[in-house]
Design a protein that fits this description.
Strand order of the largest sheet of chain B: 1-2
Order of helices and strands of chain A: HEHHEEH
Order of helices and strands of chain B: HHHHHHEEHEEHHHH
Largest sheet of chain B: 2 strands, antiparallel
Mean pLDDT of chain A: 85
Structural class of chain B: mainly alpha
Shape of chain B: elongated
Structural class of chain A: alpha+beta
Number of strands of chain B: 4
Shape of chain A: globular
Radius of gyration of chain A: 17 Å
Low-confidence stretches of chain A: none
Oligomer: heterodimer
Number of strands of chain A: 3
Largest sheet of chain A: 3 strands, antiparallel
Mean pLDDT of chain B: 78
Helix content of chain A: 40-55%
Strand order of the largest sheet of chain A: 1-3-2
Distance between the termini of chain A: 65 Å
Chain lengths: 122, 266
Amino acid sequence: MTQRQAIEPADFLPLSPQQFHILLSLARQDRHGYGVIQDIAARTGETMGTGTLYTALARLAALELIDETGEDDGRRRHYRVTRLGRAVLDAEAVRLQALVRFARQEGLGRRPARPAPAKGRP
Amino acid sequence: VNGTWRGTLARLIYRALLPLAPRVTRPYREDMIATFDGLSRAADREGLGATLRLLMRETASMVKAHRRAPASPFLQERTPFLASMGGWLTSWEQFGSVWRSLGRRPVFTLTVTIALALGAAVTTTLFSIVETVLLSPLPYPDADRLVGVLESNPTAPGQGTLAAPGRIEDWNRLNQTFVAISASCGDSVSDTSGDEPERLMARRVTARFFNVFAAAAQAGRVFTPEEELETGPKAVVISDAYWVPTSCSSRRYLASALWILRSRRS
């Protein structure tokens, strides 16, 4: 008889930047693909391509870090973070925080982060 | 979906891009199209430039998606277009990988480039020689009827010897195979009629030389039957290669030719 091993959030680390941003976007609220792209663009100033987005969504869904809400407004599908996904996101944030702390101990990264460039025409 | 012609065209192009990464686009096809519609409408409001940037970004994104999840062999077998596009992308990625790899090894790259350049140069030179000597016909009418005749010594086979002018005449008189036989040998003469002496490459020829090659003079004439006789008047035919580059005065060359004749007579 085999015993299923417990899955730890640390097993999923490190996340790719795309996966991190998608989880972060979905952690705030359930979104469809276009909403995720808009949220990431508002935060980082970079517009993610749909190929990149859905490759990452498929990967996150396969890892059971996200799933679909079942809400359907026409063709759009909505995604949400699972409990495991939220734990992984939290673990990744802790990991990144530790990395930043190590860098700061070396005197790096003390400049304020540049704000994301404004999107669209003024 | 409403919008301008730019948006409609962009959506058509986007749909054409979807087969590039079927493992991703198959399960999410409708959702991806809906997401792109939103992006397309936003870009459409900003103008043509924004739509073009969107399409370029989506193309790059699909290529990346293809790289991460290429089409399965099963799908490639059933979609030849997809297989060809996937193959093209794979080749392009391999080309980029090779290019970067070469950039990291400059000595190796330089060595290979020089070796390839030398190889190409040698091959081109050899082909030029073979093409000129063997493949291209001689620049004479009925060149395939020209035959080279040599006299050899039975005691030293394989080594040609010079044939005397009298013997050439005997061969021509006795032969029943060729239309005519003529001969020539290399010679060099000096033209000292100008300010600076000049060394000229020349050939002494026997009778019927221009008849054998069916060559006519571009200007003036070739040898007359009287001039072809051993005891006849001497004459010179000036080549085009000598005439054209230095043709400052035809009178000077006439003087030159006459001087060469006088020199031969003395």
